[in-house]
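Comment thread on ticket #2218

A.B. wrote:
> Attaching the input chain for the structure job we discussed in standup.
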Amino acid sequence: MRSWSIPVGRLFGIEIRIHLTFLFLLVFVWSTVATQDATAALRAFGLVGIIFGSVILHELGHALVARGSGVPAKGIILLPIGGITILDEAHALPDPIDAWKRDIRIAIAGPVVNLAIAGISALILLSIAPGVSLTAKPLLHWSALLRSLVWANVYLGLFNLLPAYPMDGGRVLRALFTRRMDLVQATQRAVRIGNVFSILMIMVGMLISMGAGARWNGYWLMMVGFFLFTGAQLEERSAMFQSVLQRVRLEEVMLTDFATLSPADTLEDALEKAVHTLQDDFPVVRGGDMVGVISKQKILDALRAEGNGYVQAAMNRIFDVASKQESLASAFRKLASRNLSIIPVVDEQHLVGIVTLQNLMHSMALLAESRKLRREALDS
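C.D. wrote:
> Ran it. Output below, let me know if you need it in another format.
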């Protein structure tokens, strides 16, 4: 999702990104006003701005409630039908006993924000223009921006409450399922229900697009159904991957044959050693005790900036360690929380291995293949 989005700024320390599917919304709006005058075009793009602002506030609702619940948000990716709030699990507080209640609060925060905006906007509009009809058709159109502000938020709020995972209603459903089953099973059940909604949307959209009057509505419904279906599959895979991370121990994936450096090594000597290994990151060891870490890139940068010196002056003294019995999920959290690229693995205060971002994916792929071969051997 991040690779298909562009950053536009930050709010409350949260990165805001726009997904490229917003271009479809711009194309749709432009197609409806291409034959109109400049004023109509401006009002049409004003409607896009209303939807854009409503989606931002929707996702900020999720992000701020999540932060208040101990799960800070790293970023928000905006889509025409809503958005995705990326939570920072590495800095999250430990799950409370009633974690499902926390998840429900976070999920419903977005729709509540939209419905609150709709209600407040309706009251203000009726107070300043009593003669305006909020139910006049069309409800959502560039020709009536104030009425569209009300209905855009009504639509966003109610649509996101559908129990179609990964919409907010589907997340509420999954949270309720976690009361009786683990997260993976709850996600799979919510995904199955969400897939039914997705397929129905696609089928109804196809029927509408075959008609004469509302083809664009049909196309949009099909696109929404497709995004819901795809998003649900990605969420299910993510939940299963997280479950695997919890079960895999570091001793299964750590590097046991690795090179180390001494703080007394010169940078040129360190670079020479680095040339003959596939490692990108190195533990720095003095007399059996680990005193720092350094990367190939840091060695090169130090050589370019200051010339030949000692590893001790360039190494990073801030690092974290893990025991070989810790889970891979724990290692990921430590890597992310301090923006590290290497974690030394110790056993009884002795360095027995390292885990790096470089080797994790290779190790996970090989581990999955070895487990698959073991299962096939047992089945045969």
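A.B. wrote:
> Thanks. Noting for the ticket: Residues 251-379 form a domain with the CBS-domain fold (CATH 3.10.580.10).
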